[in-house]
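Appendix B, record 7
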Amino acid sequence: MVVVGGSFGGVNAAYQLRRKLGDRVDLTLIAAEPYFTFIPSLPWVMMDWRKPEAVKVPLGGPLGRRRVRFINERATAIDPAAQTVSTAGGQVLGYDHLVLATGADLDWSNVPGSDPAQGSVHTCFTVEQAVAARQAIARFLAADGGRAIIGANPGASCGGPAYEIIMMLETALRRQKRRHLFDLHLVTPEPFLGHFGVNGIGNMSRMMEDEFRSRHLNWTTNAALTQIEPGKATLADGAEMPFDLAVLIPAFYGAQVVRDVNGLGNPRGFIPTDQHLRSTAYPNIYAVGVSVAIAPPVPTPVPVGVPKTGHMSEEMAVRAAANITAEVTGSGDLVDGLTLPATCVADAGDVGFYIKADPFLPPRNVAVLRRGVRYHYVKLAFERYYLEKVKRDLPSMHFGW
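Structure tokens (predicted):
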């Protein structure tokens, strides 16, 4: 049995499979990075409020203690007919069940000039990107004034960090008593603030508008960025936005290893699944987390993708492992892996927001929104708990105490 991916979905799938199936299966996890990164903390790394090493856990030890073979190499090819996975180091592993928690590749192609490699823009999906952004943000905060655009390209599906970053910048400047010297502008393809790719949650739009107005943050919705040049962003309507700092969230592709397999992914490389998270093309391949294809609940004037939070990825991993266990043991019913709850805590520098939606996509049975200083500390506590969870395979905990 093979799991590909070392983030929320992959690590939890491996732990769950070992716990449920014990020694009746050989279990291998393949990941390009040697460590698990708590990605929700990368905005703190960008602000220099957290050191990079504090949000990472080396995977070799924790996986080895649970008798999960760890291969620290990139998965390069999947052969569903032969039921094998190949790695960059030349290893070929057979599988009876395969779990793909392969995440996504960043797609900067729809906005020329927005790729951070070209030097004008920063982003926040790896530790290295966060460290590069941290240096740019430090220069911005030390300047005598400036303009920042924070936001997302058309098609982006992970806009939450942009909200966190712009409010953290505002908090830092206000603490310096220099907020009045800076213009901070959110540029988002969402049709309204707080849409988040799921048509909003409860009264999130009103909550976000109130928050932005109280912080004197500017915003442009239905924004289709078309070009980034040094110091200038251009929108589809011809509007030009000068900037001294730009942090953008790109659209996603499915991972290359998925895109290379005929029929496994959709045109963007995400994996269509049935309700039990089995690939519709190859039933012994399961997908969890960002790799799963989920259609937006409603069309939007500018494309916006559906996010998959860390909580959702973990929920998918737990349910995929339960379904694989049912298939291996021949006992128990398969469970629904797509009608998911989601719980999230977003930090705004000095306060935080608690968001709970069940199910994640509308219509919902539960939609809870809370704002307060306590949720800033809840996120801090949860980060520390989750890093320990990865080290020790602790029980899940998602703010619902």
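Remarks on this record: Residues 108-251 form a domain with the FAD/NAD(P)-binding domain fold (CATH 3.50.50.60). The chain has two domains: 2-106+252-338, 108-251.
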